[in-house]
Write a structure and sequence with these properties.
Blueprint: E1 4-5, H1 10-13, H2 16-19, E2 22-28, E3 31-36, E4 41-44, H3 48-53, E5 59-63, E6 66-69, E7 73-77, E8 82-85, E9 90-92, H4 98-111
Parallel strand pairs: 1-4
Antiparallel strand pairs: 2-3, 2-6, 3-4, 5-6, 7-8, 8-9
Length: 112
């Protein structure tokens, strides 16, 4: 069951302890929904592009509406151009970003 967290200030999201708990971010206009490891989420009053710029390199943009934490990427579903996260969520990968996402995932697997 999802429950709302209070809105977070964007600066707090860049703290290491908080960023490690972020699974993915969904953009919605001038707001972003930050989905945490425990299934809870927070709404941030900042668009996904600006939020992504302030996050560490383990966060990659996979689609105009989605940023993921590579730590929680379980599998790339090539035929559907989607990815599967460790929490069971499936998210679309933009066609123009597919090769980049695939390469980042391969490199991450090698280093893990």
């Amino acid at each position: 069951m999802e429950t709302n967290l209070p809105s977070l200030k964007p600066q707090k999201l860049v703290e290491k302890t908080v960023t490690e708990e972020i699974v993915h971010i969904e953009g919605d206009g001038n707001y972003s929904r930050v989905v945490m490891l425990n299934g809870r989420f927070a709404v941030v009053t900042q668009n996904i592009q600006l939020l992504h710029q302030n996050l560490p390199p383990q966060f990659i943009r996979i689609h105009k509406s989605y940023v993921i934490n590579v730590q929680y990427l379980a599998k790339i579903l090539a035929r559907q151009k989607m990815l599967l996260l460790t929490n069971g969520m499936r998210l679309p990968i933009a066609r123009r970003r597919y090769t980049e996402v695939k390469n980042i995932f391969k490199n991450y697997q090698k280093s893990a």
